[in-house]
Design a protein that fits this description.
alpha/beta; 20% strand; 271 residues; binds zinc ion; seven-stranded parallel beta sheet
Length: 271
């Protein structure tokens, strides 16, 4: 059975200190066939406020060298996780068009210029339902603009945070937002952009996958087939965490395959 983790951060991300060597050694130890490094690139409105940036050329060159070094043991893929917002497309365009990516995760880490980890966003909206709605609206807005991403990252990430303001933030009112979630999933399918099943929510207190089972099921019902599995590990010990549960969920929902990417092209692997 093919094993791969499609969402892993290294010290090229400002919020990780993990050495690439440790990541690859851990992947080999776990018996993975492949691993995709997807470090953060999160731009702000102004370059001086950028949250996460790295030198793409140095990154790709470093990963290519490791790919060569591990070629008989592990398939190393070069990815990136871009924290997208509609008004920032112009800044991301050259990154998205760069040649070295196997895989691009587009993620919403900010809504209306505000990082979802900050209280400000929760103070701006009266209820968690309003925040959640705005979050999903921005995903839809992003999908009108960003065609170049392989999958949308952790679709319901907003439920991880409440800024201490909204206590019930972990529960998304799926009935209330059904119209919007359906529009997102239909647009993803129409644009041939996949989703990921991200296991980090299990470790970060949400006790669930991102997105939750119901959204993954709805994606399947609407005809979605492209789904990658990622740990979102920021340290080597979290690589492929809870992948047994993730694969079981996908099988329970009727999926027969999961996906990986090479040179931005999707590949289907048996679950
Ligand atoms: Zn993310
Ligand atoms: Zn991530």
């Amino acid at each position: 059975m093919y094993k791969g983790d499609s969402h892993v951060h290294s010290k090229f991300s400002a919020d990780s200190r993990e050495e690439l060597e440790n990541i690859f050694e851990r992947a080999v130890e776990l018996g993975l066939d492949e691993i995709t490094i997807t470090d953060h690139m999160d731009f702000a409105d102004d370059e001086k406020d950028d949250l996460f940036v790295f030198d793409v050329e140095e990154y790709c060159r470093t990963l290519y060298a490791y790919r060569q070094k591990y070629k008989n043991k592990l398939n190393i893929k070069v990815g990136v996780e871009v924290g997208i917002q509609p008004h920032l497309y112009g800044r991301y365009e050259p990154i998205l068009k760069a040649g070295c990516w196997d895989f691009i995760i587009g993620s919403s880490h900010s809504v209306d210029h505000i990082d979802v980890g900050h209280n400000e966003i929760y103070l701006k909206y009266k209820t968690k339902d309003e925040v959640h709605r705005r979050y999903f609206e921005t995903i839809l807005e992003n999908l009108d603009i960003y065609d170049d991403i392989s999958v949308y990252g952790h679709l319901d990430f907003i439920r991880r945070y409440g800024g201490g303001v909204h206590k019930d933030h972990k529960i998304i009112d799926l009935e209330l937002h059904k119209d919007l979630i359906d529009k997102i999933l239909k647009k993803l399918i129409e644009k041939n952009i996949g989703i990921e099943l991200n296991t980090s929510g299990i470790r970060y207190g949400v006790n669930d996958f991102h997105p939750c089972r119901e959204i993954v099921l709805r994606y399947k019902e609407l005809g979605g087939k492209i789904i990658t599995i990622g740990s979102d590990a920021h340290k080597a010990e979290d690589i492929a965490k809870d992948f047994d549960k993730a694969k079981k969920l996908l099988k329970d929902l009727g999926f027969k395959q999961f996906c990986t990417f090479t040179n931005r092209k999707v590949e289907f692997k048996e679950l």
